[in-house]
Write a structure and sequence with these properties.
globular, Rossmann fold, 9 helices, 42% helix, alpha/beta, 273 residues, eight-stranded mixed β-sheet
Length: 273
């Protein structure tokens, strides 16, 4: 009988160690834009740290990597969310109305360094409008829709993923004006939002993650097998390391209301606005 009890206890400890986090102590994070790249890496690292994770993406049915990750971690839930669909945002906020969210990670965005017509003199204004709606307006709407969830949590943090290219001080070329404009506008909007909600104890922090090597391109034995863009990025040493995701989680965990006036970089250094 004693051996049976020991076996049952061991099995229970194994399940706790390899499975879900204790709901009484686990923190909760909601990440937008979770299907690939930085967002997917955030989901993976938060899950490995034992967080309860709400992973949102526009099309869950095609997010195969995210679905596979969710299948590996019982505390990862995948939800459909388009940050430009206000009704969908409201519905998701209502679904989780009784769930405190420690970190609202605003990662979803259109990256026009990679797609879209993005050169002065050849501006696609309909495309520019979509970029601004996604990268600025949608971010604020999600923040306001989930404000009560964040305010009800212990950590009370909204982490806004901006970009190094959003720094007006550091502009040295005319590259990617639509994207840069959207991130500079996002910086101002969320900086003022931080002032608006700080009396609630809510921290709104703007962070530039850089282009993170989430696929470990820099460790590929034969760089010639990579796309031209990735070959250039590797050659120029322009990627932030994969570890940048974990460093940003640590940074987010360490933030206080005193940090809302700072434009943070993933490594903890400061960027000029």
């Amino acid at each position: 009988m004693l051996q049976l009890r020991i076996a049952l206890i061991a099995a229970a400890l194994f399940i706790l160690d390899s499975g879900s986090a204790d709901p009484a102590t686990a923190k909760t994070v909601l990440v937008t834009g979770s299907s690939q790249g930085h967002g997917l890496a955030f989901i993976n690292d938060y899950a490995e740290r034992g967080w309860t994770v709400i992973a949102t993406t526009r099309t869950p049915s095609t997010a195969t990597q995210l679905q596979a990750l969710a299948a590996s971690f019982p505390d990862v839930t995948v939800e459909e969310l388009d940050v430009t669909d206000f009704a969908e945002i409201d519905a998701l906020a209502d679904k989780y109305k009784n769930t405190p969210i420690d970190v609202l990670n605003l990662n979803g965005a259109i990256n026009t360094f990679r797609v879209g017509r993005n050169t002065h003199g050849e501006t696609d204004y309909a495309w520019l409008e979509q970029v601004l709606k996604t990268n600025i307006v949608g971010q604020l709407y999600v923040s306001e829709a989930f404000l009560e969830h964040v305010a009800a949590s212990d950590q009370k943090t909204i982490a806004v993923m901006s970009a190094v290219g959003g720094s007006i001080t550091n502009v040295r070329s005319a590259t990617a004006p639509s994207y840069r404009t959207s991130k500079a506008g996002l910086n101002m909007l969320m900086r003022t939002y931080g002032e608006a909600v700080k009396d609630r104890g809510v921290i709104v922090a703007v962070i530039a993650p850089g282009t993170i090597d989430t696929e470990n391109y820099m460790k590929v034995e034969d760089p010639s097998t990579l796309s031209d863009r990735n070959q250039r990025m590797v050659a120029a040493n322009s990627y932030a390391p994969r570890e940048a995701i974990g460093k940003m989680i640590d940074l987010i965990d360490s933030l206080t209301l005193d940090d809302i006036s700072t434009f943070h970089k993933w490594d903890g250094t400061t960027l000029p606005w």
